[in-house]
Specification:
binds flavin-adenine dinucleotide; alpha/beta; 4-stranded antiparallel sheet; 7-stranded mixed sheet
Length: about 625
Amino acid sequence: MAKHKTHHEECDILVVGGGMAGTGAAFESRHWGRDLKIICVEKANIDRSGAVAQGLYAINCYMGMQWNENQPEDHVRYARNDLMGLVREDLGYDMARHVDSTVHMFEEWGLPMMKNPKTGRYQREGKWQIMIHGESYKPIVAEAAKKSADKIYNRIMITHLLMDENDENRVGGAVGFNMRTGDYYVFRAKTVIVAAGGASHIFKPRAVGEGMGRTWYAPWSNGSAYALPIEAGAKMTQMENRIVLCRFKDGYGPVGAYFLHLKTYTQNANGENYEKKWYEQTKKLVGEYIDHHPTPTCLRNHAFVQEVMAGRGPIQMVTKEAFQDPHLETIGWENFLGMTVGQAVVWASQNIDPKYTNPELTTSEPYVMGSHATCSGAWVSGPEDISPPEYFWGYNRMMTIQGLFGAGDTVGGSAHKFSSGSFTEGRLAAKAAVKYIEDEKAKNIKVSEEQCENFKKIIYKPLENYTVGRNEITGGTVSPSYFSPIQGLQRLQQIMDEYVGGISVNYMTNGNLLKKGLELLQWLQEDLEHIGAEDYHQLMRAWELKHRAITSQCVTEHTLFREETRWPGYYYRGDHMNLDDKNWHCLTVSRRDPKTGKFTMEKMPVYHIIGDEEKKKAS
Ligand SMILES: Cc1cc2nc3c(=O)[nH]c(=O)nc-3n(C[C@H](O)[C@H](O)[C@H](O)COP(=O)(O)OP(=O)(O)OC[C@H]3O[C@@H](n4cnc5c(N)ncnc54)[C@H](O)[C@@H]3O)c2cc1C
């Protein structure tokens, strides 16, 4: 242990994860906290980290209030509709009313925005999306964070939160290790903003073996955003609301620009419009939600999944018509070059020219996120001016642990934030964190050397397991006393896939399967004590897996608790196939007791703060 040097840092605001939300948090912390010490810690390198690493072709959340294109209320209605009625409207409204100012700053900082030549406004891709030349999106926002923070630490994975020994419900910082040097880092902090992205690779992916990294969601997003607060005892919400994406097969290239801008459409193998065929069947499951406009994302997935199960796949995107127009053809390809080069490579390797061949689509394995068409994450306080009492406990975006804030994929209940909304939420959390410090809520935090040393022992244990156990290797990599991170990951993925509703069971699960899944996850947790890491990279893999495993437990507990099928197309409870508004028009909230490891579940009310459009017109 002595060989791992310990570094100590003290700061006012510690930002964990320098993706979209983390860079927003670092930037805004400095704006309100001129004299505060602000540190951002990132697992990769903030210039190219997070889900936006490769760049984006569109900013998916922009109101356009200056031109009266949309108002925040419209966005709340949109997100509520897409999530089958269940969102935190206070959080969504709060993000939406501030998101335009974020986008205007991006433009000032040099992000090339496409403009509509006729109107001079931002070029719309859809009602909420505006088009950008976004290859450099991430380096641009990273620069703002670098200029704002006192220090950015790259290549450090945060593994645990430090807790105040004077108040067990108050945060005191975080610890982690540098994946290149192996050094141990202790960050004592008055507030911590967790902005560590969502979770991929907890369910078995479609692409396995050498293609394993090819998932829709960033493969390096490992659920730290959830595991860190869960382990500390923070409450989580809507963790059952995993997301399944309909994307181009194998490369997971985005379909948004194709649908919205190129006006392409889908069909089954016989050239039929299959979605309308499933209308009556879907209506029996979810009632009038199928009549909503736009059709909720999960219900479109549902038609896709059912059509394939009925034997009429593959489902294709009809590109042959749009690609005859050279302008649209260029946009179709550029769309990939700006954010998913891999899709163009996949098509080249499969001899697919979308001008002559309609490419196949697929539905992905499920992911856990809080910023896309899904809203899993931490249960946080809303803003004081609009949140009802159950949703407000003092500081915007503060979790149920004092001084612990969240933003972006970390925060539950507020879907459709995307890149701009996540950055905005980081700003909101940072402003509240500064206020928390100014209000002197962070006084007398005690984090002893003993607490830090204990974590150090725990963090490096996988290296020790390997060093001792390798002497017993019987053949190849097989050891009786440890297992490798990849072996553990595949075991986790199989459990989640088969028992919690992954691809190989067409997203189907039930109470009995979930209970069995929980049992198997518990045994996996026990075995994770024996995980072995041969180097610092594998040590990171070991901790990524541990964070994925605890996130998976939480997802499974939530899925068991909600006895209905709220989002067919994302997952199905075979024993409760219908949407049940009478009993389940509510948010689910969990808490894991840090001492016992047991989860407790509760229902929280959904408040519809924003009225319906029809009612608004009538009044
Ligand atoms: C495939 C895909 C396509 C998308 N397309 C669009 C689009 O076209 N338009 C749009 O507006 N939005 C899009 N989004 C959404 C957008 O990317 C996300 O909403 C946004 O990135 C979420 O921000 P975040 O900060 O929560 O997570 P991220 O931006 O992913 O950042 C999380 C950061 O935390 C770091 N981290 C993780 N764990 C740790 C740890 N333990 N310690 C330290 N650091 C850690 C990660 O390395 C990462 O840098 C897309 C997302 C995906 C996945």
